[in-house]
Amino acid sequence: SPESAASKPGPAAPGAGEGGSSVWSGSSHHPHESRRVKLGIGGLLLLILVILNLGIYQSAERELVTERWNELTQLADARRTQVRTVIQNAERQARYLAGDQAFSMHAGWAAAGRLRGVDREEFESELDRAVQAFDYRHLLLMDADGRVLAHSRATGDPHEKIHATLARRALATRGKLAANLLVESRGAEFEFAIPLYGAPGSERVPVLVVAVEADPIVLPIAQADNGIASAAQVYLVRREGHTVQWLTAPDAGGTSVPE
């Protein structure tokens, strides 16, 4: 009958019963899978961002290092030119002094061993006046053997071995300047030697050795605005064998030297 037909259950729909329950349970795990995918994508993007920033940083660092080295090279060239100019001025003054006829004559007599008594006193007084006029530390007249022929009275106890080496270097240059930077307890000094070729009265060539105090020359140059950074310092060093010798201290008071 129609009633009994309506009361009979129809055929089971596909996926109904236990099979149907697996569809709903699978849909319940979908949000977890989505979160894992999002976290993976986020981590990948973060890694790409870190690598990208690292590349940008390294590139900027290389550019900054190159820029600083270029600035340092330009600064060193400028300071070298300033120091060279000061030494050249002192050299011109010394050559002017050596070119004086009376000075050259006394130098020739000294080289020949004929500068004695009053003549020697007069010549050394002339050296004293030159020291005061040109603000030298001292003046020496030497021969090729390193003997001191005459000196300014301000010289004190000259370093004859060091000066003799400088005098021989000057003679080897045949008229060109031979220079040295001597570091003493009283401070550094520039020294240069000039052969007095043509000095009358002697076959031996006397050599004029001039010493100029280095600190008043170097420190103002080293302490000037370096244009790099407010914390940057400039000082003068030189290689001494396998070590570095500090010629000027980096601080304004000149009291400390970096290790």
Describe the protein's architecture and organization.
This protein is α+β, with helices and mostly antiparallel strands and 259 residues long. The chain is built from seven helices and seven strands. The strands form two sheets. The protein has a five-stranded antiparallel beta sheet, with helices on both faces. Helix 3 packs antiparallel against helix 7 and helix 4 (101-111) packs across helix 5. It starts with a helix and ends in a 13-residue tail after the last strand.
Key descriptive features of the protein:
259 residues, alpha+beta, five-stranded antiparallel sheet, two-stranded antiparallel ribbon, 7 helices, 7 strands, 53% helix, disordered N terminus
Topology:
Elements (H helix, E strand, L loop, with lengths): L1 H6 L10 H11 L1 H69 L2 H11 L5 H18 L3 E5 L5 E4 L8 H13 L5 E7 L2 E9 L11 E7 L1 H8 L14 E4 L2 E4 L13
Antiparallel strand pairs: 1-2, 1-5, 3-4, 4-5, 6-7
Helix pairs in contact: 3-7, 4-5
Beta-strand residue percentage? 15-25%
- Please estimate the helix content: 40-55%
Q: Write down the secondary-structure element order.
A: HHHHHEEHEEEHEE
- Shape, per Cα inertia axes: rod-shaped
Straight-line N-to-C gap: 113 Å
Mean pLDDT reading: 74
Point out poorly predicted stretches: 1-6, 15-28, 252-259
